[in-house]
Amino acid sequence: MTLQTMRWLLLAGLAACAPAARGPSAPAPRPAATALPDDGAAHVTLLHINDVYEVTAVDGGKAGGLARVATLLKRLEAANPATRMLLGGDFLSPSAIGTARVNGERLAGRQMIAVLNAVGLDLATLGNHEFDLSFPELGRRIAESTFGYVLSNVTDSLGRPHFGIPRHRILRLTDGRGRSVRLGVVGAVLEQVRRPNLRYLPPLAALRAEIAAIKDSVDAIVALTHLMLRQDIELAEELPELDLIVGGHEHENWALRRGARLTPIVKADANVRTVAIIDVAVRPGARPKVEYRLMAVTDSIPEDPAVAAEAKRWTDLAYEAFRQDGLEPARVIATLPMALDARETIIRNQENELTRLLTGAWMAEARDAEVALINSGSVRLDDVIPAGPITEYDVIRLLPFGGKAVMVEMSGALLRRVLEQGDINRGIGGFLLKASADMGPMGWRVGSTPLDTLRSYRVVTTDFLVSGGEQNLGYLNDRNPGLRLIRTLRDVRLIAIDELKRRFGR
Ligand SMILES: [Zn+2]
Question: How far is the CA of 92 from the centre of ligand 1 (A)?
Answer without folding.
Answer: 11
